[in-house]
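Dear colleague,

As promised, here are the two records you asked about, laid out in our usual form so they can be pasted straight into your sheet.

NAME FIELD: protein one
SEQUENCE, THEN STRUCTURE:
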Amino acid sequence: MKRPFRRSLPLKPMPLFAAAAITPLILLAGGVYLGSAWVLPGLLYMAVLTAALDHLIRLTAPDAPEGAEFPAADALLVVIGLGHLIAFPLAVWAIAGDSGLSPLARILLFMGFGQFFGQVSNPAAHELIHRGSRNLYRLGVAVYVTMLNGHHASAHRLVHHRHVATDLDPNSARAGENFYRFLPRAYFGSFRAGFGAENELRARKARALHPYVAYVTGQVFCLALGGLLAGWAGALVWLALAAYATAQLMLSDYVQHYGLRRALLPNGRHEPVNDRHSWNAPHWFSSGVMLNAPRHSDHHAHPNRPYPALRLPEPDDAPWLPWSLPVASAVALVPPLWHRRMRHRLAKWLPETAER
């Protein structure tokens, strides 16, 4: 297959990641304090600018050399993680509390912060729970807890990476399944599957406090904090922002594994995970905003590889989405269009022995 993108992006990776991921947070926070029209740039950055740059400038960053190290990578994750923990209650207060903002500004802030939490905070938390440091892991869990999705830290590592592209993974969408059926199945299914995986770990070896106690307790505290900030409206806005952000994570999972299945081997086991079991996107700017999350095949092949070092497989070796990941996620919200555009692309990557 002819490569539709050129690997000639004249930017170093870490400045791109830092600028692309932090700028919308600065714009949105500025909108809280400046109000009115100043709210709009942050939303336009997430909703319009990212897609426009991706599709107008058809470049992709070159792969980092094998073994390359990025000492600033974890520092950026900490900045985003701590920024999220400050921004989430700030957003709740600005939207639901006595911030003096107009109704329109509050709606725009909800949409802008919701997209930031869904498309930047989620990838950052995902990276944090894969880092070897206990403190970084805890920061990632805290970010997920604010989005009322703490169990994802268990389900992603213990279930998704083990069973991806099989029916044992709630977060691997089936061929023909639309997003609206996938969403509740993935969210509640991953809650149960993660709980079961954590119980299995504790049955084999005595461990500390069950993490689900921390997840649920932390999430109740978050809703209570929303109530302290702005009464019942604050608790409801916290819940709505968390649902919006988590739905975007589920939407990314839906798109990045849609319909792909690992072949069933004669011994009854599934083939090992390889590049063919994740959809990828080469687009440079959304990769910067989302910390290389669109390079999903390499993440599953090397879960502990830092995000700046993730490699993009060639389109003959792994599925490529026809759009950037944010645009593909928007298309997936219209199931007839999604299925029509993806049917023939998916057929190329389905093995004869895959589960249907």
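NAME FIELD: protein two
SEQUENCE, THEN STRUCTURE:
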Amino acid sequence: MLTYPQIDPVVFSVGPFSIGNGSIGPLAVHWYGVMYLVAFIIFYALGKYRIHRGRHAGWETRDLDDLLFYGVIGIIVGARLGYVLFYKPAYYLENPLEIIQLWHGGMSFHGGFLGVLTAMTVFAWLRRKPWLEVSDFTAPLAPLGLAAGRLGNFINGELWGKPTALPWGMIFPHADDLPRHPSQLYELALEGVVLFIVLWWFSAKSKPRGAVSALFLIGYGLFRFLIEYVREPDGFLPELPLHFSMGQWLSLPMMLAGIALLMYSMRKPGSDNQNHGAD
């Protein structure tokens, strides 16, 4: 049995500051926000590596700059609105001003994913690049950023798992005194590290356009669906059909879309073979 290490979610804070007759602050930098920054840095570094290796014909560093810019906006806006709409629509309908209070927490991967899809669509249209070419370029760069996000969840001591008798069960004082699955670390390992290794290997050689994107959809959806069985469900949500969690219901269309896209991309493997891999 392990005990959660009680990591301070705040990296550092400054203030409060006096302004006239009032004050503002203190202003705090949270580890979760730092993990978002780490994710963007990883995405950019890996993307630059692939471009400089010459594995993506027609891509330049300025393309990566713009893709990251649109992606950052898409992730933040999409993740927040996804949480609002998928998890607590009634609450935020009554408290609309809290939607912009990101420091209170509440971000959804699936909402962020939809935001990224929107960002890629805008980028592809402006750059006049095929959408699947953009998604195939993006897919292998994303998992390590997802791992950073899950590390942020662990540091915050949130999204813990269900009770377990396994020797690595961890007590999260925020929850109770029961040893629980450290589901954040499971997601870090599977949705982050393992998925990155699989996609990097799979994209090392040319594949039909859309195949790398399809594998990302299938891989993430499958890992998330399975981990949800040991993750404590959100207590504020009603019981959903088939006893699936919200995360599982949102992962199902990802897997189905991935399977359909893989079948489509493999239909004529030699006709649209434009995904250049990276070593």
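A couple of things worth noting about protein two: Strands lie at 2-3, 10-14, 17-19, 22-24, 27-30, 170-171, 179-180. Residues 61-86 form the longest helix (26 residues).

Best,
R.
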